[in-house]
């Protein structure tokens, strides 16, 4: 039976509107928590908050909470050792789940502790008690990143969040060719990784001579101290700083002196507080020995012999690390055959001999894989004899097919459920650190909760973060991201298309001009004009609005080119409007658009900023093609 409403719909909506406006809503959080349950009601922080800090809580974490509350408008923060029976203002209880005040606060809200490593429970009760309980110190810190997002709201919804990572290793590997990041880039990147709940940064720039060509030599004292400073910055952000060395081009695997040189390098870095190490054996010749004694030790050179030799060296280094530090994280290595999961003599030898504690990296089904499925990862597990750590070559832009590009599409085509077959994911970012954060936000969110990952929402969240919450700047950034959406492979076919949102509009313009009536043509040309203005205006909005000026600096030539392309598209829209009205001024508009398009196409990358210098690409194959085709879409008026 159909129910009949006795009031008009408009009256019902008007009646409901005030109540709806006051209802607490499910917050949008990045990465998506494993479980979020609204419990009814809301809490406003106001001017005064009481902070209940459990004994043993890291003072740096307490300082972060205080800063966070200050940014949210709280003016008075007092402290207490426990919750009172009745609270007269918001109380925030902070600590690990084994602390008595935290357990008492959780019990008060009827919530159990979480037991997952790096996990946390966050409860907001309608009486104003906020409890953040980390399973461990890392979990507490990750929970702070969730609370940081929540306190930006005018009121906090009463809720319970139970959250923990799907993958144990999540972060980035600075493993690209070309100009390495500066120390300031790395510091900012470590701060950023904390905000997306990543826990790993691998220092592996290909152009550090003391990590590759001069790997046997000691670092200069100043450089060693700088690496130690970065490791301390990482620790403060609950990120594991991993030092990687690339001895493969010259190492003699059977030479005790070379093994000692590796261990000596690691020992020196351990003296700077670095505890995690990595041996990179990628991009080397493995069919030829570097020394005669390897022939005596392992036989004639070849893939299988290389696998055996590498395993012997790595096992010895792993044993050394444990002898120096029994609690040391396991050694990580990237094999010479780091892509695909096909069975080979090299993989068989490595699998048979390599210490099972050692973590193996793998780039997927190719160097730049178009997709990665659960069966792909299972094949890698079988090939390497352990769950692999995915080295995802996205958004790295150090190969020829990426010349003139920033890779800023959302992270997609990695199958939900990969957390069951991977040890983690490390993104290989771009030479441009700040623009890399767009893709890395997605990769970190996927690694945290692949089952709950939403690519489009995470992409939008990355824009909001870069914009510092400025909605206009966030929208301008999304317009920019769309012009840098293409994701090339080593082949001719990209694994993500170029400018899908812009292309959809331009296709609609073409179709409407071809088949629509006069009002429809006028409407779609007006819409095109609006989009052209958005593209032309975006660079200035981004420069003024981004929270970190490094983004605008590192993306400068792309922003310059984008503005010019936007003006060219505006003139193109004017030409179409004139042509549609039979106005001969269309010819001049199209000519001016062509001239500006040529200017925009000539803008070049910052010399030396990337491995391959070249001209900037902005929605190439979409925007340029439309501007070139537009004069032929409507017949010129007959004079």
Oligomer: single chain
Number of helices: 20
Q: Beta-sheet strand percentage?
A: 5-15%
Instruction: Kindly report the name of the CATH homologous superfamily of the largest domain.
Output: Glycosidases
Q: For the terminal residues, how far apart are their CA atoms?
A: 67 Å
Main sheet: strand order: 8-9-10-11-12-13-14-15
Helix content: 40-55%
> Structural class, please?
alpha/beta
- At the fold tier of CATH, the topology name of the largest domain is TIM Barrel
Which of globular, elongated, flat, extended, rod-shaped describes the shape?
Answer: globular
Relevant terms:
8-stranded parallel β-barrel; disordered N terminus; Methane Monooxygenase Hydroxylase, Chain G, domain 1; 15 strands; 7-stranded mixed sheet; 44% helix; 20 helices; 639 residues; Chitobiase, domain 2; TIM Barrel; alpha/beta
Task: Describe it.
With 639 residues, this protein is α/β, with parallel strands linked by helices. It folds into 3 domains: 142 residues, Chitobiase/beta-hexosaminidase domain 2-like (Chitobiase, domain 2), CATH 3.30.379.10; 298 residues, Glycosidases (TIM Barrel, Alpha-Beta Barrel), CATH 3.20.20; 133 residues, Up-down Bundle (Methane Monooxygenase Hydroxylase, Chain G, domain 1), CATH 1.20.58. It has 20 helices and 15 strands. The radius of gyration is 28 Å and the shape is globular. It starts with 8 loop residues before the first helix and ends in a 10-residue tail after the last helix. The N terminus is likely disordered.
């Amino acid at each position: 039976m159909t129910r009949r409403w006795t009031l008009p719909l408009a009256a019902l909506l008007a009646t409901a509107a005030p109540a709806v406006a006051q209802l607490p809503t499910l917050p949008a959080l990045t990465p998506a928590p494993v479980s979020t349950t609204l419990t009814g009601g809301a809490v406003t922080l106001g001017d005064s908050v009481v902070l209940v800090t459990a004994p043993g809580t890291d003072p740096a974490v307490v300082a972060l909470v205080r800063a966070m509350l200050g940014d949210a408008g709280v003016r008075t923060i007092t402290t207490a050792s426990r919750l009172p029976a009745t609270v007269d203002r918001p109380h925030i209880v902070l600590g690990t789940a084994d602390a008595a005040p935290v357990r008492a606060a959780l019990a008060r809200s009827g919530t159990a502790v979480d037991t997952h490593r790096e996990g946390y429970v966050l409860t907001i009760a309608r009486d104003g008690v906020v409890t953040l309980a980390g399973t461990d110190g890392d979990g507490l810190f990750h929970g702070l990143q969730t609370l940081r997002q929540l306190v930006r709201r005018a009121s906090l919804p009463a809720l319970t969040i139970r959250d923990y990572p799907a993958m144990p290793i999540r972060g980035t590997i600075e493993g690209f060719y070309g100009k390495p990041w500066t120390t300031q880039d790395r510091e900012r990147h470590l701060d950023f990784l904390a905000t997306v709940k990543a826990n790993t940064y691998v220092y592996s720039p290909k152009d550090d001579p003391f990590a590759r060509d001069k790997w046997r030599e000691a670092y200069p004292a100043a450089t060693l101290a700088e690496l130690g400073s970065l490791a301390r910055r990482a620790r403060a952000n609950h990120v594991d700083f991993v030092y990687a060395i690339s001895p493969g081009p010259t190492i003699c695997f059977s030479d005790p002196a070379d093994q000692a040189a590796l261990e000596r390098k690691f020992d020196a870095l351990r003296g700077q507080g670095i505890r995690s190490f990595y041996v990179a054996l990628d991009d080397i010749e493995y069919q030829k020995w570097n020394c005669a004694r390897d022939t005596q030790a392992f036989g004639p050179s070849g893939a299988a012999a290389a696998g055996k030799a590498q395993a012997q060296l790595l096992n010895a280094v792993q044993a050394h690390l444990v002898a120096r530090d029994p609690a040391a994280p396991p050694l990580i290595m990237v094999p010479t055959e780091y892509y695909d999961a096909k069975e080979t003599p090299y993989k068989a030898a490595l699998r048979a001999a390599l210490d099972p504690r050692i973590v193996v990296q793998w780039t997927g089904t190719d160097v730049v894989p178009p997709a990665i499925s659960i069966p792909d990862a299972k094949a890698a597990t079988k090939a390497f004899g352990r769950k692999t750590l995915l080295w995802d070559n996205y958004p790295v832009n150090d190969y020829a097919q990426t010349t003139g590009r920033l890779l800023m599409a959302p992270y997609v085509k990695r199958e939900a459920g990969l957390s069951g077959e991977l040890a983690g994911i490390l993104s290989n970012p771009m030479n441009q650190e700040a623009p890399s954060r767009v893709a890395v936000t997605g990769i970190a969110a996927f690694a945290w909760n692949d089952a709950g990952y939403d690519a489009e929402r995470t992409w939008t969240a990355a824009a909001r973060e870069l914009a510092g919450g400025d909605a206009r700047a966030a929208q301008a950034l999304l317009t920019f991201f769309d012009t840098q959406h293409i994701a090339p492979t080593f082949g001719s076919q990209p694994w993500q298309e170029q400018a899908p949102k812009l292309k959809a509009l331009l296709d609609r313009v073409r179709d409407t001009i071809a088949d629509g009536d006069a009002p429809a043509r006028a409407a779609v040309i007006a819409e095109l004009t609006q989009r052209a203005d958005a593209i032309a205006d975006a660079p200035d909005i981004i420069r003024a609005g981004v929270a970190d000026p490094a983004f605008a600096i590192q993306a400068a030539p792309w922003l310059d080119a984008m503005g010019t392309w936007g003006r060219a598209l505006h003139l193109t829209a004017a030409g179409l409007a004139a042509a549609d009205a039979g106005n001969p001024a269309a010819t001049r508009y199209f000519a001016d658009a062509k001239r500006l398009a040529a200017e925009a196409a000539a803008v070049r990358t910052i010399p030396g900023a990337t491995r391959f210098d070249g001209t900037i690409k902005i929605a190439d194959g979409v925007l340029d093609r439309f501007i070139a085709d537009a004069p032929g879409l409507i017949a010129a008026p007959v004079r």
